[in-house]
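ok so heres the complex, three chains, lmk if somethin looks off
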Amino acid sequence: MEATKGYLAPRTLVEAAQFAQDGKATILAGATDIVPRWTRSLVEEPELIVDVKGIEELQGVSQANGEVRLGACATISEIESSPIIQSSASVLAQAAGRVACPQIRNRATIGGNLCNASPAADTAIPLILLDAVLDLASVSRDGITLREVPVVDYFQGPGSTILASGEILTSIRFRPLPSGVFTAWDKFGTRPAMEIAVASVGIALKMEGKRITHTRIGYGSVAPVPMRGCRVEAELMGNPLSAEVIEKCEDAAREEIAPITDVRATAAYRREVVGVMLRRMLERAQGAR
Amino acid sequence: MHKVLDKVELSFIVNGEAVRLKAMPHATLLDVLRNDLELTGTKYGCGEGECGACSVLLNGKVVNSCLVLALECEGSQILTIEGLSTNGRLHPIQKAFIDYGAIQCGFCTPGMIMATYALLEANPSPTAMEVKRGLEGNLCRCTGYRKIVDAVLSLS
Amino acid sequence: MTESAVNALSKHPKTTVRASLIGKRIPKLDAPEKATGLSRYIEDIKLPRMLYGKILFAERPHARILDIDVSAAKALDGVRAVLTASDIELVPFGFGKDNTALKKERVTCVRDEVAAVAADTPEIAADAVKHIRVTYEDLPVVTSPGEALKEGAPVIHPEVPDNTPFRYDYSHGDVAAGIRQSDVIVEDTYVLHRVAHCCLGTSGIIAYFDADGKLVLHSLTQVPFLYKHELSGIVGVAPENVRIIQPPIGGGFGSKLDIHPFEPICVFLAKATSRPVRLVFSREEEFLATPTRQPVVIHLKSGARKDGTFTFRDVHMTLDNGGHTSWGATTPWIMMRTFSSLYRVPHVRQHVDVVYTNNIYACAFRGYGNPQATFALESQVDQLAEELGMDPLELRLTNTQDPGETTGQGMILRTCGLKECLEIAARNAGWEEKRKNVGQVIRHATVRERSGKRNKDVRPEDSSLVRGIGMASLFHVGGGAKIYRSDGCGTILKIDDFGGITVLTGSSEIGQGSETMIAQIVAEELGLPIKNIRVINNDTDLTPWDVGAHASRTVFIAGNSALRAAREARGKLVDAAAVRLKRKPEELDLEEGNVVDRSNGEPLESIGKIIRGLHFGAKNKLIMTTDFYEPPSTSPDEKHMGNISACYAFGTHVTEVEVDLDTGVVKVLKVCAAHDVGRVINRLGIEGQVEGGIVQGIGYCLTEEVRVEGGHILNPTFTDYKICTTTDLPELNISFVETNDPAGPYGAKGIGESPLIPVAAAIANAVYNATGVRITELPLTPEKVLMKLKEAWS
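and the predicted structre for the whole thing:
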């Protein structure tokens, strides 16, 4: 292996995993998060860049056996415009369409978005709503070992994931939501475009008769990781979607998140906005019946 | 003392011409276009993908060249602003920008035109909102965008 | 000079045989070069053996410099020079003479320049800067004027022990009398923030000494001749040995009006290495080390009689001057003029304190203090209207001046279209109708409380939206501000043997289209197609003097200068044609490159042939003319009185907004703008100025802020410093009022700064109309608006 080369573009997952093994390689997909860091001298220029975009297993958007599979290197614009995603997971297509701008969307990948692990990652919340699982690959004497991690467990902290040294994210899988599930996602910023979310909220909700039988809630940018809204889910499950329940959910949302104050917004404002966004989505769900 | 890495050989096609050169692993496409190939039409505005001044087409898709490593472009097709007009014959997009007053200081113009090119390739008859969304990654400080949007709509 | 006097210069005035170019849409002359990527901006210029410069900034707000160790930096391969203050002669410069190119003993703000490197590549230069070791002794940081003025506060510049380098006082009339005459009085404090120019092209310069030892600069300056003069003193080169070449710039907006430390630094690097040096900022350096708009706290008290006539204004302003003085410290001179002269007001008093802190400092920025002053004044005019129970439009109309009036500060409003601007903008916006429909105070209520039963047809996010409409006017100089002993501009014009014109103008093109305007005027006078006109404006060795592009002076002053030179040429041309064609001069006109019969437009001879006839015929003459135009304005006296501009710009914006009561988001829906510009010269260019200014103003009001805490900048990137994108563009309705100023070229007055000036005030007034909540601090971020809404309704 030519460590002095600085840049490698392996064609197979095994090769990539081997390069990644000693933990010194920087895995490169879309480059949109990582390149600014070293050009702004926030990190050292990497000694070894391993470009994984050429690896077959990491490509594309496909559907088989009732399961949708996203290669880690599927770009955000591929996901935005994919008919499979638009029909089976419209919130994900919607979130993809709100990432930054066309130039970024054409390069940024879903794998990169998840591995960068910003609490503001736009694709994370829709994946939480979809109960997605992430496939992580590592190489050992026996070849490639895969393990599966639910998306909620993937994030460990701002910029930190469960990826072990030498592991590579290869794909993301989810089952399309059954019919009758209402989904919504939104992110809030100070202007309509080119925004890193001040807060984002996503909901998935199914009602049978007058009661809610399935729900997932997700929040972005208001905790160290993209998080699931378990308290709000508890308020919703088995209950009607009434004004009282919605009000309780708004309060529960504000209580269960853990936003910080940073240059983009104060914690108090994030709490405020999350409650408003959630309430509006639940009201829209009410109206959609 | 930092480690000195080798330059790597690289070949791709820029504005229809085959190019072969050597680039450092960390060099961006923007660096290579401007410094090695002296195609200075593509601009540095921020170096972090926030302004669009460095927009070019990479294999038909508009990207921020400041975020693409040169080595990622092996075998690729790149179109820059210099590739739009031929022998002084302006591309209709360039002509529209000129005629509609969509250019003041001109610094954002190459990137804006390349993003417009990509937009119209994918969507030849965009609405005003679609034009705005297609150009949302390109900052302009002089024009206020109105004449840029008018120029693009005139082409649809 | 009146138009008739100017016309007298040309013995053969234009007729209207053909359609005039004036008022037409003329595409910018350099647009094709810019559209093809062929324009070479500073960062595109590479000279043989050129080195790359980079600066080490202090990155701490207040400290003593104990030691600078450059040995490691010097030892790197490819490093050709490393300079600190000890290596150069330190000549203080700037309006306050309190800045030097490199800092020797102390740094007084984070962007202070401590050392500089020239190296073979930008990467080596950046690396070398990282290897410079500076030992600092941190000093207590003064983060506000309030702190700087406290007893025992650290002294930031020893020559100014009270930290207050400048104080200004102005008055006309008698404020005490004004107070007595008032039936209503309003008092409030307005806090205006820092914003950055965000030129898409970052700052840069190239310096080298030519074979004769002459200093040559490729510089982005907007004021080349003043710059040449001042810079020569700083770097120790005689001014006649300094040549400034101006490449196209990636935006100005006032940022290039001053001399910035990086500029003499680059000269010193060129001197030390005997090679050309190019120094260009990264975007982060641009945010860190270029001055901002002047922040200011304005305390304003004003009054009116019950019939609406304004009685007095009493203004107290405190300016955060930062760690060094740049042009920001002089913005009060312009702010004063808004307080004294926007609308008629008999009694005005102003006091201004300019105070050092350890924050970053401010320079000129489009409007030069006027957006700040107008925000305060026009907000308070609405507050007065409310106290009086008057319509804000009616209150303003009650106090507009008449053409010919002289203001309390001595400014002669020969033309004044303010009344028309108010009426037109209001009419176009549907003011009367919209003011009736909007409730004044809307109780904050969620969709549940408000309607009890949820309205299923209304989207949840729409039910908390309220709309409002507000207005604000502007008053600004329209023909320079006599900031220097001369406010003039020179022109040299020649016609070649083929009817091609070259115009050398001292005026600078900074993206605003001045070269196109000049070509248009010359083409109009000489009856030649614009493509025959070549304008040269970017080399101080070639062009005659001009004080610079600022104070919205270029169309008025440079335009007049070009017009006069062109008219003189016209006269000579028609005289020569009359002789050659054996006609009377009054029978002839110039059109489309030909001499024509004035009565029927019939072409008689090409202009080129006339010139060749002159050149090679018995007379052996060529047509070359010159002009230096000094406007008839006066410098202000020690009391700040005087007619500083030959004409003044007016305008009104009426703006509609939508406010989301649950999130505080303010969206600008529509701006109806009416601007008194005297006369439209290039309709395409002038619209571009207005549209661009409005969108800059929206950013100023709603989303932009350079956040400074403890002297440090928190958001030095486009990620977190938010300028408007395409999706922020509101509906724009723009009208021009042509008052035909007799002193202006074809009646034109300046426009460059005006469109930005009233934007924030109009938005804030509209937000008040929508929500009943008055916010007196910019920017109106969603968080701030929501907080104020909650405060008001709790």
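quick notes: Chain A has a mean pLDDT of 93. thats all i got rn
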